[in-house]
Every structure is written in structure tokens, then in C-alpha cells.
């Protein structure tokens, strides 16, 4: 993960649950690219076909609520999403996102100040989110070093492998 994450944004509201991120009928799929074909299809039919590598998903409060499935952050990763920024996250989604290496940024002030297609620049070290389209800036929580290490490693499993090899 780079210090600065920049991308075009897809905007959703509060309480986006894991069944919306990846509908339960597709949970027999396990590969991120396969999951990506169905990502967000029940809330936004245009997402899977229109998302591009580096895009950012923005949400309101309680993003990722619902079940504890890791399929949800994997579907977003498989879609090429570079980060998810939301007012706050359901704790299990937060943990699953870290486990699979998906950068997640809590930014409570962003809701209502971003629209689909805006370009966001997220500085994970400084804890800022800038809407380059409107010029507005918002504060977020900077990533602590251990979280950056986990995400930069590609998630918990890859981080553990690096540690076992003596690389971390």
C-alpha cells in the first residue's frame, strides 16, 4: 500500500451489509476475481462492469455490517478497489478487510461531501482524505505501523509467512 491512495469513488450510504457487497447466492465462489463479477450487484448493477483498478468505495456509517464472511472484502479486492473509506465500519468487516489486505479508512466527515465519480486522495500516514474534485479535505485515522505492515504484506496470512521467514 502506498502512502497516498488516489482513485475515482463509488458512493453508497449507511449500513451497507455484506449481503449487498457480495450476495449470499454467490458464496460458493472463493476466488476474488470470480466474486468481483457479482460485487455490489444488488445495490448497484453498474459496479462490477464499471469499477476500474484503483477505484475507491465510500460509505456511510456501519459499512460491512451483517455476516462475518471474508467474501465481502475479497470481492472488493477482486474488483480492483484500492480502498474503502466510510464513516465507520462494522468490526468484523474491519477485521476481515485487514486480514485480506484491503485498506479501510474511517473518515466520519466525508459522508454527504462526495459523489460518484469524484476523485479522492487518501494519505494514510497523515490521516487525511482530500476530495480532489471539490477541493474539500477531511480528517481520518492514520494507519498505525502494525496495520500498515499487515496491509502491505497482503493480509494476515502473508504477514505471518513473512514473519516466519524472518522478513518482518
Could you explain how this protein is built, in words?
The protein is of the alpha/beta class. The protein has a single domain (4-164), classed as Aconitase, domain 4, CATH 3.20.19. It has seven helices and seven strands; from the N terminus they run βαααβαβαββββαα. It has helices spanning 18-21, 32-36, 47-50, 71-78, 91-100, 145-152, 156-164, and strands at residues 4-11, 56-59, 83-86, 104-106, 119-123, 128-131, 137-139. A seven-stranded mixed sheet has the order 4-3-2-1-5-6-7. Strand 2, helix 4 (71-78) and strand 3 (83-86) form a beta-alpha-beta unit. The radius of gyration is 15 Å and the shape is globular. The model has no long low-confidence stretch (mean pLDDT 94).
**CATH classification, class level:** Alpha Beta
Strand content: 15-25%
Number of helical regions: 7
CA(first)-CA(last) distance: 16 Å
> Low-confidence segments, ≥5 residues, pLDDT <50?
none
Strand sequence of the main sheet, in spatial order? 4-3-2-1-5-6-7
User: How many β strands by DSSP?
Assistant: 7
**Structural domain count:** 1
Determine the CATH topology.
Answer: Aconitase, domain 4
Mean pLDDT, to the nearest integer, reads 94
Bin the helical content: 25-40%
Can you summarize this structure?
This protein has a single domain (4-164), classed as Aconitase, domain 4 (Alpha-Beta Barrel), CATH 3.20.19.10. Helix content is 29%, strand content 18%. The chain has helices at residues 18-21, 32-36, 47-50, 71-78, 91-100, 145-152, 156-164, and strands at residues 4-11, 56-59, 83-86, 104-106, 119-123, 128-131, 137-139.
Amino acid at each position: 500500500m502506498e502512502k497516498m491512495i488516489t482513485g475515482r469513488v463509488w458512493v453508497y450510504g449507511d449500513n451497507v451489509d455484506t449481503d449487498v457487497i457480495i450476495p449470499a447466492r454467490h458464496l460458493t465462489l472463493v476466488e476474488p476475481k470470480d466474486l468481483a463479477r457479482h460485487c455490489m450487484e444488488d445495490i448497484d448493477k453498474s459496479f462490477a462492469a464499471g469499477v476500474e483498478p484503483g477505484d475507491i468505495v465510500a460509505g456511510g456509517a456501519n459499512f460491512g455490517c451483517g455476516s462475518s464472511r471474508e467474501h465481502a472484502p475479497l470481492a472488493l479486492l477482486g474488483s480492483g478497489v484500492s480502498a474503502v473509506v466510510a464513516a465507520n465500519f462494522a468490526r468484523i468487516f474491519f477485521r476481515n478487510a485487514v486480514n485480506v489486505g484491503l485498506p479501510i479508512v474511517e473518515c466520519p466527515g466525508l459522508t454527504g461531501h462526495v459523489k460518484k465519480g469524484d476523485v479522492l486522495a487518501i494519505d494514510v500516514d497523515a490521516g487525511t482524505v482530500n476530495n480532489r474534485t471539490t477541493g474539500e479535505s477531511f480528517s481520518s485515522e492514520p494507519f498505525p505501523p502494525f496495520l500498515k505492515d499487515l496491509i502491505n504484506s497482503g493480509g494476515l496470512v502473508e504477514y505471518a509467512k513473512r514473519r516466519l521467514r524472518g522478513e518482518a
